[in-house]
Amino acid sequence: MIVRRSALLSSSAIRCIRRLQETPTPLYNRALNHCFPNKNRPDNIFSVIRTFSSKEIVTITYCDPEGGEHPVEAEIGKNLLDVAHDNNIELEGACGGELACSTCHLVFDQEVYDALPTKTDEEEDMLDLAFELTETSRLGCQIKVVKEFDGIKVRIPDDGY
Questions:
Q1: φ, ψ for residue 159, nearest 5 deg
Q2: Between 95 and which of 13, 100, 130, 139 could a Cys-Cys bridge form, CB atoms 3.0 to 4.6 Å apart?
Q3: How far apart are CA 28 and CA 45, in angstroms?
Q4: Which long-range contacts (CB under 8 A, 24 or more apart) does 7-11 make?
C-alpha cells in the first residue's frame, strides 16, 4: 500500500504545536482527535512531525537465500541497497553504492525486471563478476524505488547474503 503524507510542518507550526502541548486547549484536543482518530494520538511533537513528513513509502519484500521473506517500507527515490541497509537486511554493498563491485546483486521477477531502467555498460561489467547471475539480475545500488514497486519481491542470491 502506498502511503502519501502531507508536506513538512513549518517551524512556526512546530512552535505552535509545542505551545499547545504545554497548555492544551479544547481546540488543540479537537484538532488532534480529528488528525489522529481512534485514539492513535502521538506522544510528543516528534511523533507529530514524523506523521506529517513528506515521504512516500511502498512495501518491498527481500527474499533471502534460505527462503525467508522480509517485507520492509521503502522510501520512493532511495536505491534498493540503501533500503536494505536502512532495514537491517543483509545485503553487502562493499563499495557503498559506487558501482565498483557486485555485492548488492539482486534478482527480480521478469515483469518487474522488464519495467526497470536500462542497465548502463558499467553496471553490466560489474554484473559479470556476480555469482548466480540470471537474466533478471541487477545491482541494488543502481535501482531507485518507484511507486510501481509497491508489493514487489526481490531475491538476494547467495553471493549477496
A1: -70, -20
A2: 100
A3: 13
A4: 7/52, 7/54, 8/49, 8/52, 8/53, 8/54, 9/48, 9/49, 9/52
Can you give the pLDDT at residue 1? 44
Long-range CB pairs of 108-111 (<8 Å, 24+ gap) are: 108/136, 108/137, 108/138, 108/152, 108/154, 108/155, 109/136, 109/152, 109/153, 110/135, 110/136
- Residue 1 has, within 13 A of its CA and on its CB side, a CA count of 2
CA separation for the pair 85, 81 (Å, rounded): 6
Choice among 43-47, 52-56, 75-79, 122-126 with the minimum mean pLDDT = 43-47
- Among the ranges given (14-28, 52-66, 73-87, 142-156), the one the predictor scored with the smallest mean pLDDT: 14-28
SS3 106: strand
| Angle (CA) 125 128 130, round 5° | 125
